[in-house]
Protein 1
Amino acid sequence: MFREITRFKQAIPKEDCIALLKTQLRGFLALLGDDDYPYVSPTNHYYNEEDGKLYFHSNMRGHKIDAMKKHPKASYCVLSDGYQIEGKRGLDFDSVIIFGHIEVVEDREKVYDICRKLSYQFFDDEEYIEHEIATSGKTTFMFALVPEHMTGKHVNEA
């Protein structure tokens, strides 16, 4: 059902894919949008090792939310920052693409827990994080991408 990568010699192992999901804080969520046009949204995520899902937070309304409710299949792409290898042209980088389906997180305590974990990826001001959860947590929409297929590869862009 899912295609394997064409340049299989550039494939990276699943462990490296997961490491990239844990260290890179942002990626691109692709959904089927209005009139079946692709809709891609840059977004931050939290990778949960316990269940293997990627979690996202959002406003409760908007194009992204409408798209995922209409068609819950999605893909998500994450890129490493890239680095220069001495003597080589172009940057080397790793990428991961995940295909899966969207699940809405209904349990408010889980929403707050994931919001904390997501927030701590960016800053460690506990007072600020708890204030934001207390004031905005009730209106935070949380969803997970449940992976069905994942590939990763190493590329030199030259």
Note: The two ends are 31 Å apart (CA to CA).
Protein 2
Amino acid sequence: MADHIASSEERRKKTVANLKDGFASLRTGRASASLFDKIRVDCYGEKSPLNQVANISIPEARLIVIQPWDKNLIGEIEKAIRSSELSLNPSNDGKVIRISIPPLTEERRKELVKLAKNQAEQSRVAVRNIRRDGNEELKKLLKDAAITEDDESKSSAELQKLTDSYITRVNQVLEEKEKEIMDV
């Protein structure tokens, strides 16, 4: 019983972690190395994460400097950034790639907040689905006479409490991201 609730809590933690990962790739008006977490560079015939073929630094609030460990990859890195969904315009001097992060328009900020809200809603649905799965498992155990009605009731209440706390966590993560996006 307790291991069942623990495993459902682990699934909830992963849901919140996935939401945070998803939010990391949402571009705000500030430079952030996490923007490039999902970018893969063609490196000698293999797709490698950008952060494994170059050093990413943020010297200023709106500037990103990418220094490849192998200068021959500069063109591939630039190509990967241009073809990404980040809508960034990198420029290189043969040694490093510089990317200026333009300030977001009010309209784009609102679009990003809407995207963030959709991601958060998907996470809330996932958390509720985990609760539903847990309740179905409890009903099955009750039907098989593996637990009593009291045990089922207590465990169901505990699942609901966990669900409520994770929904609150999702809302907090969303609130932080909204503030970050709308912060000029």
Note: The chain has a mean pLDDT of 87.
Protein 3
Amino acid sequence: MKILGIESSCDETAASVVEDGRIVKSNIIATSLDEHKLYGGVVPEIASRRHAESISAVVKEALEQADCALEDIDAIAVTFAPGLIGSLLVGVNFAKGLAVAANKPIVPVHHIRAHIASNYLTSDLEPPFLCLIVSGGHSHIVAVNSYTDYKIIGKTRDDAAGEALDKAGRIMGLPYPGGISIDKISGEGDPNAFTFPRPRIEGAPYDFSFSGLKTSVINVVHHAEQKGEAISIPDLAASFQKSVVDILIANLEKAAKDFGYENLPHLREAEPRCIKKIVLAGGVSANSLLRAKSQKLCKKRGWELYLPELKYCGDNAAMVASQGYYEFIAGVKAKADLNAYATMPIDIVNF
């Protein structure tokens, strides 16, 4: 079964053909990142305009690279939530028009579910498992009970980890995207040079909070500027990255211990026992320190670790086509009135 995936939730216009949810036949991405760098972040109006300009050519190239025609496609999967609403609407409306013209079913795909599915593209991973999803807009710990059944264990209460990294990078004067720049420069710094808080949320031990951590970096930089003191940016970057990753790993380990690996009935009485699979997904899953500490944790605990290939960590359409395959065989289809939504929980998909 061949699924054409279309992704336009942020600043990447992407299309891909994936066979049986696992075999990538093509994966085309057009990005407007260089334009957004001029402004230090994604400008929604620019992103949506570039999607409108690029999407037709990107889809055409994806079909050509996969050596198939539109009539060979079994269904069209498209990201419909969450994301920048203008960007999402470009992809959704293009997919709907294409589906009507080609008489193909359209499958709505949740963007964060698609990030999880990026792990299906290069491994034999099957649910159930516990997944840490970390990106510019999301930080979740999710129990993936099946390909289409999810339970949120923990989530951010304010900034996402990727958002905090990007904003901290801007404060440090590093190029956008700040998270990538911090990861690159941290290797030159001392991760123990600065001490930052590790916020905990009372009554919600698996939830995250990164806004206070970001404010701490602002305070360090402003204090140094007022005093006329120099700051080692590599040291600051390394210390901040370590704090973010330590928080992510601590909550992930606690959730893994509490939800099923030693005490599975907390999830669902019907779930199988002895699950030992930990999965990372999302753009920040490319972070070198997060990957290293995840590997160390899973080795210590005897858990299996699945990491997406670096080329599938960021937004792409192969992950959308993969998840679209599993949604489609589960009977998920949309009608011609499919809309886009800026926000939507991963465990509740309405369309």
Note: The CA atoms of residues 279 and 306 lie 5 Å apart.
